[in-house]
Amino acid sequence: MPGYKIAVLPGDGIGPEVTREAERALVAAAQAFDFEIELEHWPIGGTALEKFDMPFPDATREACLAADAVFLGAIGDPKWDHETGNRRCEAALLALRKALGGYANLRPVIVPESLVGASPLRPDRVSGTDLLIVRELTSGIYFGEPRSSSEDAAANSMVYTRGEIERIARMAFSIAEKRRGHLTSVDKANVLEVSQLWRSVVTEIHESEFPNVKLEHLYIDNAAIQLILNPSQFDVILTGNLFGDILSDLAGTLPGSLGILPSASIGGLVNLYEPVHGSAPDIAGKGWANPGGALLSAVMLLQGLGEMEAGIRLQDGIVNALNEAVLTRDLGGTVSTTEFADSVLSHAFDFAPTVPIR
Ligand code: NAD
Ligand code: IPM
Ligand code: MN
Questions:
Q1: What pLDDT does residue 357 have?
Q2: What CATH number was assigned to the domain covering residues 1-107+255-358?
Q3: For the structural domain made of 130-242+249-253, what CATH number should be given?
Q4: For ligand 1, atom 12, which residue shows the shortest CA distance?
Q5: 41: which of 51, 148, 249, 273 is 20 to 30 A away, CA to CA?
Q6: Does residue 356 carry a pLDDT above 70?
Q7: From the alpha carbon of 45, which atom of ligand 1 is closest?
Q8: Residue 41 burial (CB < 10 Å; 0-12/13-18/19+)?
Q9: Which of 81, 90, 279 to mutate to test the pocket of ligand 2 (most atoms within 8 A of CB)?
Q10: Residues annotated catalytic, as ranges
Q11: By C-alpha distance, which of 11, 68, 28, 22 is closest to 298?
């Protein structure tokens, strides 16, 4: 029987609330599809800072590197915002991403018919949305040198090397080839040198290796409005770290909530799965969080392990629960985090286990 070891990092705020539901889904999937899954919890973010005086303990890093996959809930809270440098929760997440090496952050955005009415946008605009943001995750302005900070001035550098652009472009084109064969590269080449290199390298990779994919370039400001005006024009959106961060939150308007967007970071040593949303301090502890993004991240995790059937069943369970209008508050419903997951799991696997006791 195949067996997988998953490092689970619940983190802060609603992180543990949604992670718990993803864990139940993985346990149910393992039971239904005859594989073993070992879920080990490790601290990260503010929770780790309080307990171990550091937001990314070495033990967490080592456990993640030794795992078959990593699942993260969310990190951060305003109460830790006074921290600086590598004591920041966000720095812990960036260090984790860098250590695991997954440079391609895949953020799919689908609007099932059941959510067309939940979107703040007009139904005729959002209906049929099925796009994938491929966000470069381990370079760009998040990591660029030089960076500096003083009382009078602060600076960050948006740096991309040719090699970094080539590998993320190849990843995005090869995914586009298997989808609808259309890639939109988003940059700010009308102003930034780094974007001019980005655009010319993406164009080279297109011409030399993927001429069958249709390539378009958009400036980030235009991409933002196009995403809202006509989202179904997009198949794969390829972009850098900062633009991808912003566009993916904006894309949360399409299905009506950021809470339902998942992600996978691939191409490195160990794949990392995490919902797109943050720790949502405004609703933490209330039991209202939408676990959809975490559950869909568990679908991506199952796919990453090669457990395709289990992934499809879990995804169908999510779609079925939404079709029956089992909706959390962010989508206009009334059900709790756990009630939504219960509905998903009973659709997918006919039973809903409690969280495994460790
Ligand atoms: P956020 O994503 O936490 O919340 C933005 C809004 O979306 C809030 O109104 C929140 O209630 C809502 N929301 C988010 N997830 C939801 C869910 N699952 N169900 C229902 N509603 C949901 O962004 P923020 O408030 O800007 O950031 C809060 C903290 O989270 C900050 O410390 C930030 O750095 C951190 N953060 C972490 C991650 C991560 O861990 N991957 C991602 C983004 C932000
Ligand atoms: C995300 C988050 C992170 C990012 C933060 C918390 C470091 O916003 O995953 O989208 O900017 O990448
Ligand atoms: Mn973000």
A1: 45
A2: 3.40.718.10
A3: 3.40.50
A4: 280
A5: 249
A6: no
A7: 40
A8: middle
A9: 90
A10: 142, 188, 221, 245, 249
A11: 22
Site to substitute for ligand 1 among 75, 279, 328, most atoms within 8 A of C-beta: 279
* Cα 73 to averaged position of ligand 1 atoms, centre (Å): 11
Which residue's C-alpha comes closest to atom 4 of ligand 1? 280
Cα–ligand 3 centroid distance for 245 (angstroms): 5
pTM for the whole structure: 0.97
DSSP letter string over 295-358? HHHHHHHHHHHT-HHHHHHHHHHHHHHHHTT--BGGGT--B-HHHHHHHHHHHHHS--PPPPP-
Query: Reduced to 3 states, what is the DSSP secondary structure of residue 107?
Result: strand
Give the mean model confidence (pLDDT) for residues 137-154. Answer: 97
At 86-141, the pLDDT tens digits run 999 999 999 999 999 999 999 999 999 999 999 999 999 999 999 999 999 999 99
Q: Which residues contact 59 (CB under 8 A, 6 or more apart)?
A: 42
Q: Whose CA is nearest to atom 6 of ligand 2?
A: 90
Q: What is the mean pLDDT of residues 6-30?
A: 98
Domain boundary assignment for the chain: 1-107+255-358, 130-242+249-253
- Asked if 132 and 179 touch (Cβ cutoff 8 Å), the reply is yes
Answer left, alpha or beta for residue 287, where phi above 0 means left and psi between -120 and 50 means alpha.
left
Across the beta sheet with 36-41, the strand order is 36-41, 3-11, 69-74, 272-273, 264-266, 104-110, 130-136, 236-239, 182-187, 214-219
Show the CA angle centred on residue 265, arms to residues 264 and 270, nearest 5°. Answer: 110
- The residue contributing the CA closest to ligand 2 atom 8 is 245
